[in-house]
Amino acid sequence: MRGKRGRTAAIVAVVLAMAAVAGGAIASGGRGHDKSDDVRRAIDDGRARNVIYFLGDGMGDSEITVARNYELGAAGRFKGIDAPLFTGEATTWAVEESNPSLPNYVTDSAASGTAWATGVKTSNGRISTTAGTDKDLRTILERADRLGYRTGNVTTAELTDATPAVLDSHVNDRGCQGPANMANCASDKKSAGGAGSIAEQTVDHHVDVLLGGGKARFDQTIDGGPDTGKTVIQSAQRQGYEVVTDRTGLLAARSGKRLLGLFNPSNMVTEWNGPIAQPYPAGAAAVKCDESFRTTTAPNQPTLAEMTTKAIQLLDGGRHDRNGFYLQVEGASIDKQDHAENACAQIGETVEFDKAIQVGLAYARTHPDTLIVVTADHAHTSQIIEAGQTATHHSPGAITTLTTKEGATLVVNYATNIHGQSQDHTGSEVRVAAQGPQAANVLGVVDQTDLNHLLASAIGAE
């Protein structure tokens, strides 16, 4: 898929046929209306003035359903995640480092992020570099910047984590996050004439708005180049960044300077907390993700919705601005709490991610030339399984049994690794939804590399 006007026009008839069938079925069931007119109005094969790419890390279809069932009920719908009209599925496979002609069916965030950031498949662990040959790959953020778009990168993880890193850095190992973490990226060290760690490259790319965690990486000392002996934060300040470290500072930030917000030494604190899943019978005891699980350890940490709001405010140049902005927003700890077998925290991060998407959708309502994409990098381990686990019929993994707001029992299962160890990603396709210019090109089954071409076409780079 290249996102060309011809392809968009060609699928119009198919889209309308699908909508007519689906709309008729929905209407006959009494739960909606025929969507054909909605689809006709929504198809737009033009340029996007703004792009907001929402990425739920580890937010497979199962993770969405777990959170929806718990927070809204089985018949509920998220106002952000479930809102875009055009919806498809994206395949997520990576390639083998030793033989890039072979697929690796279970991707990590680095390889999947590289796919949509660059349009090229790579191996797990690589950040926007080619498998085997270690060549830098041009990213969608770099292309947007060259075309005059302002750029932003927002995450609840460290800003140097894999998903944000694929936009603004190029290293052979995702672990090379700060100047002191370069053991596996020796040729990239600034003292060796390279571009430096992910943190250094992120700042040197002059991304206009950078918000997330990972301050400890930016506190590390640079070992080469004009900023030798300075920390990455000091280098950022020399290059025109205002640096803020809490919610108060973020809300007070004003346009005119680049902004670097670092709100935790590591990953940002999750919005909810809760019990870790346990093998049967312990996991069969019902719990609720109630207010007692709300996180209180970071009272001056901004929410993802607040970071998204501020990023849009700073990046929006007004109606006379020709190009607008390119912004990526990651809800990172859906994945991290899935790894940790923490259903309540995983659900809470999905709910908070949905609130951030609602911010983007509200902006798009008054800026219809904004392309909104909502997707995930890979699927994950959590599954909804049958309630009523017994001594003779239960999951071999760990479970959390939740009592939902409907008063029903929801059993969430974690069984891709031994209980107590980090649970694994899975290789299934993930949802991709979109609205705005070029959005119809997510329909059907696409690949994550296709999303790069959709984004490039939307900003006029292809």
Please characterize this protein's 3D structure.
The chain has 462 residues and is α/β, with parallel strands linked by helices. The protein folds into two domains: 1-43; 47-277 and 291-380 and 433-458, 3-Layer(aba) Sandwich (Alkaline Phosphatase, subunit A), CATH 3.40.720. Helices cover 31% and strands 18% of the residues. The protein contains 14 helices and 17 strands. It has helices spanning 5-28, 36-42, 61-71, 109-118, 140-146, 162-168, 198-204, 215-218, 232-238, 247-252, 304-315, 333-339, 343-366, 448-458, and strands at residues 50-56, 86-91, 94-95, 103-104, 150-158, 209-213, 241-244, 258-262, 278-279, 286-287, 325-331, 370-376, 383-385, 398-403, 409-414, 430-435, 444-447. The protein has a ten-stranded mixed beta sheet with strand order 7-8-6-5-11-1-12-16-2-17, with helices on both faces. Strands 9, 10, 13, 14 and 15 form a five-stranded mixed beta sheet that branches. Strands 3-4 form a two-stranded antiparallel sheet. Helix 1 packs antiparallel against helix 2, helix 11 packs parallel to helix 13 (343-366) and helix 12 (333-339) packs antiparallel against helix 13. The longest helix has 24 residues, at 5-28. The protein is globular, with a radius of gyration of 22 Å. The N and C termini lie close together (12 Å). 52% of the residues are buried. Residues 1-30 have low confidence and may be disordered.
